[in-house]
Specification:
Layout lengths: L8 H7 L2 H17 L5 E5 L2 E6 L13 E8 L4 E5 H4 L2 H13 L10 E4 L7 H9 L3 H13 L1
Helix pairs in contact: 2-5
């Protein structure tokens, strides 16, 4: 995974080639427009992250803020990381169904939705997925997963 040492989101985007920077700016805008209250945008793990602050959920397994979503430029692709889809099987199935219904080809790992061009990503599906999980619901999903 390509990692950045940029301290700010804008610094991260400025490091990228023009087309990638523009694509990630658009996806970032979609995420920010639909991000439920309580999540914060940060630079963490070498990418743009949307997290639950430690003040809200301090008991994480790695003592780091709880990652909800991420956005990154990798060597051969760009990626949206959707931990809310990874952590809940029902959410994953619904996401995959909506993605395929958009007519776009899904290239996905556990949480990583890979895309090479902005046109490869159904932005409305990303928006709906981000908007669908209030911070308290996500914290609850996380805590339930840790009890298993």
């Amino acid at each position: 995974m390509a990692r950045s040492s940029a301290a700010t989101v804008e610094g991260y985007l400025q490091e990228l080639p023009g087309e990638r920077a523009e694509a990630l700016r658009v996806v970032r805008g979609v995420i920010l427009d639909h991000l439920p209250p309580g999540y914060v945008e940060t630079m963490n793990w070498g990418m743009i992250c949307y997290e639950v602050p430690l003040a809200r959920c301090p008991d994480t397994y790695n003592k780091q803020p709880l990652m909800f979503a991420g956005l990154a430029s990798q060597k051969r692709h760009m990626a949206v990381f959707l931990m809310c889809v990874y952590s809940h099987q029902g959410s994953r199935a619904a996401f995959e169904e909506k993605f395929r219904a958009s007519g776009k080809k899904l290239d996905m790992g556990k949480s990583c939705v890979r895309f090479r061009r902005l046109e490869d990503l159904p932005l409305q599906v990303i928006a709906e997925t981000i908007a669908a999980t209030p911070v308290e619901d996500y914290i609850q999903l996380y805590r339930e997963s840790r009890r298993k």
